[in-house]
Amino acid sequence: MNGFFDIPSDLQHSWSGLIGLHLREALLPVAAGLLLALPLAQLCVRFRRLYPPVLGATTVLYAIPSLAFFVVLIDYTGQSELTVMIPLAVYSLVVLVPAIVDGVRSVPGETLAAATAMGFGPVRRYLQVQLPIAAPAIVAGLRVATASSISLVSVGALIGNQGALGNLLAAAQKYDRPELAVNAVLTMAALAILCDALLVLLRTLLTPWMPRGTRRPRPAARSRRPEPEAATR
Amino acid sequence: MNVLHFINAFFSDGAHWHGYDGIPQRLLEHVRYTLLALALATAIGLPVGLVTGHTGRGGNALAFVANAARALPSFGLLVLVVLLIGFGLLPVMIPLVVLAVPPILVTTYEAVRSVDPSPVDAARGMGMRESRILLRVELPVALPLILSGLRSAAIQIVSTATIAAYVSLGGLGRYIVDGLYQRDYEKVVGGATLVAVLALLTLAVFWAAGRLAVSPGVRGR
Predict the structure, then answer these.
(1) pTM (two decimals)
(2) Is the ipTM beyond the 0.90 threshold?
(3) Could you tell me if B186 and B6 are in contact, meaning their C-beta atoms sit under 8 angstroms apart?
(4) Mind listing the pLDDT tens digit for each residue in A1-15?
(5) Domain span including residue B70
(6) Which of A22, A41, A83, B208 has the fewest CB atoms below 10 angstroms from its CB?
(7) pLDDT value at position A2?
(8) Could you tell me the CATH number of the domain that includes residue B156?
(9) Pick from B61, B56, B78: which is nearest to B171 by CA?
(10) Would you call A29 helix, strand, or coil by DSSP?
(11) Per the CB < 8 Å rule, is A67 touching B192?
């Protein structure tokens, strides 16, 4: 297609520059969400009564639309990258907390007792036993959070050029060049698939004890909650 | 001048309550888009999820389709479809349905798969036909999870229907998009509040539907 990579100069970035910007705006919030979700989830595991209210609060946060979230934040953080990244971090947190809690809770009691009997303290037991066993559930949450984050960054174009690849969509409309929209959609989809594949690879590396090459998912390894709810708006 | 002040100013302005750009009209449009998209996505996702979950076949294909659909950015898809086929209701429905099908499909499949096999075997032993087993045994037990999939799809549609305003349709997004271009912050915050309230109402509707539809025996567990 002609002019597929001719990015209008008012975006002030090349195609690869937009990709880098997009990845940063999408992945930093997921990382921030994970850092916040780990201690929060551990609190919920430790104090069981805390979990229902936390789950309720995250469900309500999850119900706030991204565009609404962005525009309310403009008053505080301006039309900046931060305005886009804060809501994305909140959505990641919402997806990750239940995923981590379910993952950590699914560790069998005998395993924990064995670790304690071997002289593991609570911190070492958490880091070396609970987290690795919960890794598949955590990675499942990260996959959903990453895919939705990559998709949602583009909505940032609506609050004034903060959408990275999403700005291409605005440009496609402004200059009536559909090929730019095709470029944006395909690039974002490719980024989402690539990140998803990397996370699957990460899970394989983190769980060397799992049998490999089995295409059929093992029912026993699944948690009761089938998969974290996506937060794609 | 904080957000609460803007919300108050928006809702106490009488001009926002009637006419083609009034709150009742925009709310009605938004609800209409949401119901239409949810009905279409359910018509696609629910039967496929039920049948594949019952037979237990096609799980990998399902996961692949769901992942692929999830990778597509809805906002990007919306702009692209509008550029390709023009303005109207159809170009808005396409991204909304693409957005809503994966959660419905995957949760329904997993919900039916995770039904305890012993009552299913008992039903089969009593001579129930497969279709009756699916509808009378598996569906009621799987209903809470299926409803949670529908709920998550509905909330995503309510939120995403906001961006329909970007391509000249109505709905509550109108206030947000117009407000941004008119630098009318009061309007933006008012619209955002309305969408968030509608999303919370959706949660409440699904909670009530769960209370009504889920059998007490299943709920009590």
Answers:
(1) 0.82
(2) no
(3) yes
(4) 567 777 787 777 888
(5) 3-219
(6) B208
(7) 62
(8) 1.10.3720.10
(9) B78
(10) helix
(11) yes
Give chain A's domains with CATH numbers: 15-207 (1.10.3720.10)
d(CA B35, CA B14): 28
Angle of helix A81-105 versus helix A15-46 axis, rounded to 10: 40
∠ CA(B163), CA(B168), CA(B171), 5° rounding?
55
> Amino acid letter at B103?
P
Which tokens belong to B98?
């693409």
- Residue entry with tokens 């619209």: B191
User: Which amino acid makes up residue A115?
Assistant: A
Q: CB distance B110–A227 less than 8 Å?
A: yes
CB neighbours of residue B46 within 10 Å: 18
Determine the average pLDDT of the residues in B33-43. 95
The pLDDT of residue A117:
93
**Residue owning tokens 């009536």:** A176
**CA gap A46, A102 in Å, rounded:** 13
Instruction: Say if B34 is an interface residue toward chain A (CB within 8 Å).
Output: no
**Chain A neighbours among B 43-62 (CB < 8 Å)?**
59-60
Q: Does the structure show a pLDDT above 80 at B101?
A: yes
Q: Where is average pLDDT lowest: A142-146, B85-89, B166-170, B213-217?
A: B166-170
Percent helix, strand and coil across chain B, each to the nearest 5: 85, 0, 15
For residue A226, the chain B residue with the least C-alpha distance is: B110
- CA separation for the pair A209, B98 (Å, rounded): 36
